[in-house]
Amino acid sequence: MKNFAYTLNCSILLTDLPVLQRPQAARDAGFEAVEFWWPFSTAVPADPEVDAFVGAISDAGVALTGLNFAAGDMPAGDRGLLSNPARSNEFRDNIDVAVGIGERLGTKAFNALYGNRVDGVDPAEQDAVATENLALAGTAAARIGGVVLVEPVSGSPAYPLKHARDAVAVIDRVQAEHGVDSLRLLADLYHMAVNGDDVAAALDAYADRIGHVQIADAPGRGEPGTGTLDLAGYLNQLADNGYRGYVGVEYKATRANTFDWLFGASV
């Protein structure tokens, strides 16, 4: 598993440190690239907050390979804003901020969590709002040579995208209705497996649609080797299918030497 370029997700790992200290900690641990969920408490943070985040990445000498759009209150159960009609404007306001950070740091991948189903709102209305908002996000990302990622997610029953085919159907709808072709599948091998997707079949079927890959073992969402997923086999399959992008390290640490699977026990 060492023949891949890894990027450390600093929103699920290194959480004992303040956000602005995590890029340097990732660099000290041996990573040259990081990714973040939306690192601010609001969709449109103040300019000094943005500047401080950009500075922390730059000062650490790491690449920011991926950034989530604002997704609401994740600890409280939110999983995205873009399909919620009541929060659509909040998501739209966030697009320029997120892509602006990407432009400053050379980030090319922006994860757009689809959002949970909302009680009392017709799912068709949510899907229509989501399609339009994803088209806007995709257009903005394309202006800087970037892509928007659409991700199947586990652990949230109200989140409608469970399998790779669900995310690809959304991507196809955005292209068909708006002509925007800068959306890609985020293949999180953990989420796909936990949701019962046929991971190997999906990696073959959508090889040309995958824009990013993330890993964690299952069950447990821990380090590679703590569960039963054939992560090495899946990564080799991705490589054989032509994937040359980063692999996001997005798991919950279960031990002090959480990166020993990658760098060895001395780290």
Kindly describe this structure.
There is one protein chain. By secondary structure, the chain is an alpha/beta fold. Strand 1, helix 1 (22-29) and strand 2 form a beta-alpha-beta unit. The model has no long low-confidence stretch (mean pLDDT 97). Helix 1 runs parallel beside helix 2 and helix 3 (88-105) packs parallel to helix 4 (123-142). Strands 1-2-3-4-5-6-7-8 form an eight-stranded parallel β-barrel, surrounded by four helices. The chain has nine helices and eight strands.
Quick summary of this structure?
By secondary structure, the chain is of the alpha/beta class.
Which features would summarize this protein structure in a list?
about 40% helix; alpha/beta; globular; about 270 residues
Shape summary: globular
**Biggest sheet: strand arrangement:** 1-2-3-4-5-6-7-8
Helix % is 25-40%
Written as H for each helix and E for each strand, in order along the chain, the element string is EHEHEHEHEHEHHEHEH
Based on DSSP secondary structure assignment, what is the total number of beta strands? 8
